[in-house]
Amino acid sequence: MSQLLVTGGAGFIGSNFVHHVIANTDHEVIVLDKLTYAGNAASLAGLPEHRVRLVQGDIADAPLVDDLFSQVDSVVHYAAESHNDNSLSDPRPFLDTNIVGTYTLLEAARAHDVRFHHISTDEVYGDLELDDPERFTESTPYNPSSPYSSTKAGSDLLVRAWVRSFGVRATISNCSNNYGPYQHVEKFIPRQITNVLRGIRPKLYGTGENVRDWIHADDHSSAVLTILEKGTLGETYLIGADGEKDNKAVVELILRLSDLPTDAYDHVSDRPGHDLRYAIDSTKLRTELGWAPRYRDFEAGLAATIEWYRENESWWAPAKDGVEAFYASKGQ
Ligand code: NAD
Ligand code: TDX
Predict the structure, then answer these.
(1) Ligand 2 atom closest to Cα of 85?
(2) 319: how many CB neighbours lie within 10 A of its CB?
């Protein structure tokens, strides 16, 4: 049994990870989360209180971070401003949390010699052409497009520098697009599912030909736990489950699974700088650490996710109107 600090553990992927850790290990977890608009204590409801403690606070608060690092063996760092569209309207919080926040955690990891795992994204590599036979690997050059992805790229580089310069015991993972329960309604899949549940037509940016490489959040969690347990210090691992789909196909599948005509959606204004395609080659993680995804059937995973949103309206309803007003103001 060890003590684990999970930053951003009240967000989408962080809360899925905490559920995964409680179900699959005997670790005790401290969640450090600022509970921004994206964080929700209700995502941790039902977990055993003697194993999970939520501390509301900012990862850029150095005294708080220092105190928490003195209580744990390992840290998994999910906390971030995570939404590309928000980063195009107001980039500042992305610098504060993703850059200064990560720096603050690295200084504490250095002071306390704590094992540190940094969660990042495939978006640091920029995008691929639709017909490019190559996928992203650990050696693809960084080429981020948006304020969000550039701050994530910056945070990755800070981790690498703290490993090399100060010997911090860290690993990094870059994962593709996640879906599953507890994802904020601002994101693509939950937005379209909750639109359908509300009788609103799904909204596709631009032509809808953009490709994302979908992985279930629980598979992301098992990969992170594998890296934490077996990963080589200083290394980067790409996480993906061979789930490439274009956005149009995802919207059509949501409509079909909801017994609606598959053309009952609207095209809306495109995202400025919209990355065309992401695709992950996760050979290193699979061959070196023996990881494999469990959710191999996207349609079944999506159907279960639709069901989760249908059954948990009280979790998402408070955020829905504000999100739709934000998108409507941008013609999206
Ligand atoms: P999210 O927005 O759902 O959750 C982020 C969490 O961080 C929230 O609970 C929020 O309250 C918290 N937070 C924000 N600023 C904070 C601060 N200054 N101090 C403490 N807590 C703070 O995001 P997510 O989609 O769960 O993403 C989690 C991580 O995974 C991020 O680092 C993101 O870059 C990465 N990632 C996400 C995806 C994806 O598909 N969503 C894919 C790859 C990587
Ligand atoms: O209403 C929409 N309609 C639409 O067509 C929304 C919200 C999005 N889209 C498109 C844009 C993207 O091509 O769907 C795709 C997915 O959009 P998002 O859910 O915003 O995800 P993305 O921009 O791909 O980034 C996500 O994956 C990588 C996460 O939000 C990031 O945190 C992660 O790093």
Answers:
(1) 20
(2) 17
Q: Quick one: which atom of ligand 1 is closest to the CA of 16?
A: 26
Alpha helices in 33-139 (DSSP H): 62-69, 84-89, 92-94, 102-112
For residue 317, being part of any structural domain is answered with no
How many whole angstroms from 204 Cα to the centroid of ligand 2?
10
Q: Considering every ligand atom, which ligand is closest to the CA of 210?
A: 2
**In terms of residue numbers, what domain contains 128?**
3-178+216-239
The residues carrying an active-site annotation are 122-123, 148
b/e 90-113 (16+ beta carbons within 10 angstroms → b): ebebbbebbbbbbbbbbbbbbebe
Residues with CB under 6 A from ligand 2: 82-84, 121, 123, 177, 187-188, 191, 203-205, 210, 212, 247, 271
The rounded Å distance from CA 154 to ligand 2 centre is 20
Q: Atom 29 in ligand 1: which residue has the minimum CA distance?
A: 78
Is the pTM higher than 0.90? The answer reads: yes
In a domain, 74, yes or no: yes
The amino acid sitting at 45 is A
Candidate of 82, 177, 221 to mutate for ligand 1, largest count of ligand atoms within 8 Å of Cβ: 82
Instruction: Point out the ligand 1 atom lying closest to the alpha carbon of residue 60.
Output: 18
CATH code of the domain covering residue 135 = 3.40.50.720
Question: Of 62, 66, 60, 64, whose CA–CA distance to 79 is shortest?
Answer: 60
Q: Which of 194, 190, 192, 193 is nearest to 204 (CA)?
A: 192
- Do the domain assignments include residue 119? yes
List the pLDDT tens digit at each of the 332 positions of the chain: 799 999 999 999 999 999 999 999 999 999 999 999 999 999 999 999 999 999 999 999 999 999 999 999 999 999 999 999 999 999 999 999 999 999 999 999 999 999 999 999 999 999 999 999 999 999 999 999 999 999 999 999 999 999 999 999 999 999 999 999 999 999 999 999 999 999 999 999 999 999 999 999 999 999 999 999 999 999 999 999 999 999 999 999 999 999 999 999 999 999 999 999 999 999 999 999 999 999 999 999 999 999 999 999 999 999 999 999 999 999 99
